[in-house]
Design brief:
- With 349 residues, this protein is α/β, with parallel strands linked by helices.
- It has a 7-stranded parallel β-sheet.
- The structure holds zinc ion (2 copies).
- One zinc ion (ZN) binds next to loops.
């Protein structure tokens, strides 16, 4: 006999999407379940049940055979087989270490929605962050010149800020407790170290991550100058994935950028800019030697998921494991701080 399940079909499909993303499975598989969730979301319980009974679920655009099986089981009040299998495969702890530190993380400062190169709408990212128990999630879509990632122009960013307000309003009226979706950006650090967004827009945000995405193979002296200028910029709060390296994964590998790490991290200390510990498994950035150097120089850190899909928000485990192994004092990790302290720090630039 199948185990009892009372979450309903939409929750079952969302959970399957989450677990596939968390387990780093191919995005096309995830899409099928997320599309099916979106397809049945507007339908009443009776309508869904009627379609299960007469076998017409797959007539709905976006609902395939495997999603239909999940929906049918959930409607019958049984744990869908696919969900049970994925809980077993991808539902357990992601790391052996870092658990105590992961417990202390109250939020995440780096994430993307489908407004730039993420795969899910803003509200789905926010719901999932809330379900993970975060107090805050910073939405940090890309800046205009990163065209390949559909970076946001001034106009689109302005519009996005209105959407973030609306999502927060919706969540607080729904009794979501204290969760807040914060306004942010992952702004490109241009070749000369300036930032790829207007000061006026940057000033409207709660927090700003700045990252190098182009000319990663620049000469070390030029790259050092470029990064030092950016992290000294009073508007920058977090230096994203500092070396740009890729150690594994579908995009192939990429060597780390060359720069004077001591100069860059010292400038981070002076500029009160946190060094990001990017939790994505293909990044693991900074490399351990640089992480330890930043620790010894007295840097602040943020452990970020850099999630491009809801399930990837759980990647924080990976960064927590690395930070704990490097013996970094949790109070120097800005996302262990309560929201008010974080916001004050981020605005004091
Ligand atoms: Zn980036
Ligand atoms: Zn990013």
């Amino acid at each position: 006999m199948a185990e009892a399940y009372d979450g309903g079909p939409v929750a079952a499909l969302r959970r399957i999407g989450f677990l596939l993303e968390r387990g780093r499975e191919d995005t096309f598989k995830v899409k099928a379940f997320r599309n099916a969730a979106a397809a049945i979301l507007p339908l009443s319980e009776d309508e869904v049940r009627a379609r299960v009974d007469d076998g017409t679920l797959t007539k709905l655009p976006g609902v395939g055979a495997s999603s239909a099986k999940v929906i049918a089981a959930a409607v019958r009040g049984e744990v869908p087989e696919r969900l049970a299998g994925l809980e077993e495969e991808h539902g357990g702890p992601l790391t052996e270490g870092g658990h105590a530190l992961r417990e202390r993380l109250r939020g995440d400062l780096h994430s993307h929605s489908d407004w730039s190169d993420g795969g899910s709408p803003i509200e789905e990212m926010a719901f999932t962050a809330m379900e993970l128990g975060h107090d805050y999630q910073v939405l940090t879509d890309h800046s205009p010149r990163l065209r390949i990632a559909n970076g946001l122009s001034v106009e689109r960013l302005r519009k996005q800020l209105g959407v973030v307000d609306a999502v927060n309003q919706h969540l607080s009226s729904g009794g979501a407790g204290d969760f807040t979706l914060l306004k942010g950006i992952e702004v490109d650090i241009l070749d000369d170290g300036s930032l790829d967004q207007t000061d006026e827009m940057l000033d409207q945000l709660d927090l700003r991550v700045a990252s190098v995405h182009s000319k990663l193979a620049m000469d070390a002296p030029d790259m050092t100058k470029r990064m030092v200028a950016a992290v000294r910029n009073p508007r920058v709060n977090v230096l994203g994935h500092c070396t740009g390296r890729l150690v594994t994964g579908g995009r192939g590998t990429r060597k780390q950028s060359q720069f004077d790490a001591k100069a860059v991290f010292s400038a981070c200390v002076e500029g009160d800019t946190a060094v990001e510990i990017n939790s994505r498994p293909e990044r693991r950035d900074p490399p351990t030697a640089l992480l330890e150097l930043a620790r010894d120089l007295g840097c602040l850190f943020s452990i970020d998921s850099d999630a491009h899909a809801p399930g990837q928000l759980d990647f924080l485990w990976y960064g927590a494991e690395r930070a704990e192994a490097a013996g970094i004092d949790p109070d120097r990790i800005v996302n262990t701080w309560p929201k008010d302290r974080l916001l004050e720090w981020a605005s004091n630039h």
